[in-house]
Amino acid sequence: AQSVTQLDSHVSVSEGTPVLLRCNYSSSYSPSLFWYVQHPNKGLQLLLKYTSAATLVKGINGFEAEFKKSETSFHLTKPSAHMSDAAEYFCVVSDDGSARQLTFGSGTQLTVLP
Amino acid sequence: SQTIHQWPATLVQPVGSPLSLECTVEGTSNPNLYWYRQAAGRGLQLLFYSVGIGQISSEVPQNLSASRPQDRQFILSSKKLLLSDSGFYLCAWSVGGMWTGYTFGSGTRLTVV
């Protein structure tokens, strides 16, 4: 069985400061992990994905995430927040890569303060 | 390039009324198609997926149904809406059953009143 926990429902940062969105997962297999961003009333956009290659994954818009098996974590980071980063972020896990076996986190709302 | 269209963007419907949401994909053939629902404050829940015309799998029992009349068309329906059907509905497509990162539609915000 797989599950994913996004540890913060809301995160606020000031523009220009680092962003950290936390995600912990549980999986019976070697999981595939993903981060998505959703702007208000928009669809989901894939930020980055981990599929058992390099543990440090770089995505779009300056985001990156590190897969840490020992900590069962896949935290999303960005060195410097921009106002346009304000959105909701979802961590997603797939045990076997199957399109049917996906579990979405409950989301983290990121607010960027001027 | 592949694109996915979903409409309408927003919809307000009374309890007991029917529902039809449409999703079409361009630029690809024989995609896997998916309907997700996002309830307020919650993550996404897979409702239906389809691997081909007329082939629908339901992931959760509910008041909704799905149909795939054409290769690149996926429709979400209900005969009688409930208040609990309110939410944000997203269509998505992928190639094959292995997920390397869905492409999602822009979503439909459904409010049942």
In short:
The complex is a heterodimer of chains A (114) and B (113). Chain A is an all-beta fold.
Short descriptors:
heterodimer, A: 114 residues, mainly beta, six-stranded mixed beta sheet, four-stranded antiparallel beta sheet, B: 113 residues, seven-stranded mixed beta sheet, 57% strand
Structure write-up:
The complex is a heterodimer of chains A (114) and B (113). Chain A has 114 residues and is mostly beta strands. Chain A is built from no helices and twelve strands. In chain A, the strands form three sheets. In chain A, strands 2, 5, 6, 10, 11 and 12 form a six-stranded mixed beta sheet that branches. In chain A, strand 5 and strand 6 (44-50) form a beta hairpin. Chain A starts with a strand and ends with a strand. The mean pLDDT of chain A is 89. Chain B is an all-beta fold and 113 residues long. Chain B has strands at residues 3-7, 10-13, 19-26, 32-38, 44-52, 55-58, 65-70, 73-78, 87-94, 103-104, 108-112. In chain B, the strands form two sheets. In chain B, strands 2, 4, 5, 6, 9, 10 and 11 form a seven-stranded mixed beta sheet that branches. In chain B, strand 7 and strand 8 form a beta hairpin. The model of chain B has no long low-confidence stretch (mean pLDDT 87). Chains A and B meet through strand 6 and strand 11 of A and strand 5 and strand 9 of B.
